[in-house]
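Duplicate of earlier report; Nephrocystin 3-like N-terminal domain-containing protein input re-posted below.
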Amino acid sequence: MSFGFGVGDFLAVAKLANDIWQKLHDSLGQFADIRDEIKGYSSLLYSVSKTVSNQYLAPEQAEGRDASARACRSVLEDLQKLVDKYRRLTNEAHGLAANVRQKAKKLQWDQDDARDLRARITSTTTVLRGLCETIASDQQARRELCRWLSELDFPAEQREIYSRHQHGSGEWLLQSERFKRWLESEGGVLLCPGDPGAGKTVLASIVIDHLWNSVRTGRIGVAYIYCDYLKHGGQTSLHLVGSLLKQLAEQQNPISESLRSYYDEHRCRNTDPTPERAFKVLKAECDNWSRIFIIVDALDECSEKDATRQRLIEGLLSLQGSNRMNILVTTRPIPSILCEFEVWEHLAIRANSADIQNYLLGQMNRFSKRVVVGKHLQAQIISAIIDAAEGMFLLARLTFESLVGLKNLKAIKDTLNKLSGGADSLDSAYDDTMKRIEEQDQPSHELAIRTLSWITQGQRVLSIAEIQQAISIELKYSDLDSDSMIDCDDIISACAGLVTRGHDSPDNEILRLVHYTTQEYFERKTTKYFSEAQKYLASSCLTYLLFDVFSGECWNAEQYPFYEYAVWYWGHHAENCDDEAIRILTTTFLDDARRVSGAFRHVAKYYLPHGIERLKHNDFNPSSAMHLAAFLGLTKVASKLLEDGFKPDVKDSSGVTPLSWAVKRGHEQVVNLLMTREDVDPNARNRSGMTPLAVAAINGHIAIVRLLLACENIELNAKKELTVYEQWAKLSWMINRHQNGLQILKLLLAREDIDFNVKFLGGLTPLMMATEYKSVGGLQLFLARKDIEVNAVFRSRTALYRTALSNRVEAMRLLLAREDIQVNVKNKKGLTALHVAAKYAEFEAVQLLLARDDLEVNATDENGESALFGAIENDSDTPNLELAELFLARGDVDLNIRNLYGYAPLHHAVRSGQPGVVQLFLTREDLEINIEDGEGGRLVSLAEDERDKADEGMKCDAYNTIIDLLRSYFLQRSSNTTSANILQQLPQRLAHTDDDDD
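Output:
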């Protein structure tokens, strides 16, 4: 039997194992044990076939897979031969009784073969399990890296969008000369502008599918982005480029070094990369592929907030210098976008007549069975819609939807005769669609308006399950009636083609408007169609929250998916409508302490310091309504509660006041409202000791920080040491993560009454923490204060020492610029900042320190070693040689210092096998080696001992070179030759050490 290598290979081997097991099913004796092992072997092989089905195995993994397949095939084929021989001999033994004894002897002899086969089976089983574990571990690591890179799932969107295309659509684009030129070019960019509704997104999915199936290989990558106006919050520039990196990572094995370093750099430190850093990694990825194709759909829908769109454009176009990345972009013809791509080729997108025809032919079966649409009428429909569509696929779709619901042929023909194009044809199509919705029967009309209200006026995208419950809420009922739930297809049908299914995440199906232009249309027509929407949404949310089931603790969240939306956004809708009925519902809800406490517990669960268990129903009194209003930022509701006598400064079970909740959530108007009250304490601490000012600062709410600092009795300095530490620690964290962190720090440090030299945990100061900031801007603000204590010590380390330890060169540079900085402070082990920088081969840091005139370069630690010892302590020769040269460039460096064990720096260089450093020392006139007492011989012996312990290879060569250097040096010293002359006479092999290494 012959096998290939791969998934089919293991499946075939597994089948062979199963066949052998079947043959041995009734066997006894020596084959019984093998039979049982073969059963497990077969199961293992089937499991392996699933594990290796991942097509992105690393080369060494693929090699291991193939070797395992060969070994499995070999052992099974040998076993097959033995089994066949056994069965043949057994059959002969039954027919020839006279030969039974002879056959038995032969079978007995074959037991050695059986034992050998069992051993081979055991061996290959071990290898297979190891292979599976390695691959599974690598795949798990890959999944974790990809999950960290981005949670966006564009491949899922690609599958959904591409499934909507009609076979044969988009061929005009794939066969166009401009597309072919782009495909064949290196580093080309193709901009595909098209009017709204032209079908750009479906065409983008066709291009992606074409690239994936016709172009992508192990050396050619494909990645893509679907920009979506509904997902601006999740589609930041960092998330978008992260998704591109994620898609490329999923196509390669092993993961590239640039991606691994990027992941390790930020994951280990728990920091977020910048978009610029992510683009640098994407640029580095270009070197790992022969070519990369990137598709960006609907660039015009990319958010302009925080310059997301501009960053994406600039970042992608900056990669064109590599000539390895091809980019295709679809967009509406927005001048600012067209200008960015003006030097690149353009290919206009319009709905091709053939594509529209394909689509319409695929939809003809949607007409009612009572309406017989013959071939001739079909042709009329297609022709009329193509003419009216004017290159807009969306318009063709809406027009067809207007025909599908008609009940007879006359109505269809009359509608066709009225079709017309024109500049406002899309708006006219929407107007006609809304008119059809209004002309539906009352239940269908109400269903459509309710659905469209939730989709267009809701505060976030709702899932299908949420919308189904929302539109089923009846004001007169105290719970949902399961019989009133409406099927999703009926909801979509009532909306006459304006609504479609979609996903905002892989596992959350939603209802959304059919197109971006639909959202724009309804934004223009809000007053006309949704004048009562806020009242309807508010009444639905409050009615839902007043259901009987929510008066207690025990209810099934899965049965009530709409609760999440209702509890978060009831107040927003209530405050945006002036209606007495809504005010009554609001009061009814807020007067119910148990419902309010349950609602607050639900929204605040992710913000509590010790988890949701801290909030029990009996922990609350009616004042928790104020907490809920403050938490949700409901200024009008909070004001009404204050009028009704609610106490504004009562603490909840976590010791948090309404003011602190409003501060934490960044609700400036509620904070302003509460700060006008004399009975509100602006310095009230929670159980962790955090004041509202500290909460505002660590959460990056700069406007609220200004508001609180303007308060006359605001307290800046906490009393308890742990509280001080926690506040400054969290502020440090915030400065590293929030854009306005430095501005907040500047506001705080501008106050004369703030104690910025405060010491906590035994001496840690804010300045020391500032040395760890991602940006040195915070450190600059501290150092601008003349009275800052720059030499404060915490656990025997100064701020300067900390910068040396973490290689924060820019921070060190700023500290060294202070006239009062002390560079020679030692820790409890006698180490200075120079010791640490030298030990960790931090070249720039060492350079900065050695440039100081007040540096005690020969200061020794508790072992009697100067920083020069640390510079040559590691095994890496090149950086240590450079560091040693830096040290020796100073005229006051003592290279003859002996540690407590009698070793000098030269001994360290010899022992660690660094011929370059040894050579450097031997050229120095001030080198002191006592040849008379045998020190020279001991140095040679030291090198020989280390050589004998080293593995063969370059390390041995390094020690041999050192031995030659020392012997030549001592030979010349015995002849009273100067060190300079000795250098000229050193063995030639040293001069060629680098060549030998090659």
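The first strand starts at residue 189 and ends at 193.

Merging into the original ticket.
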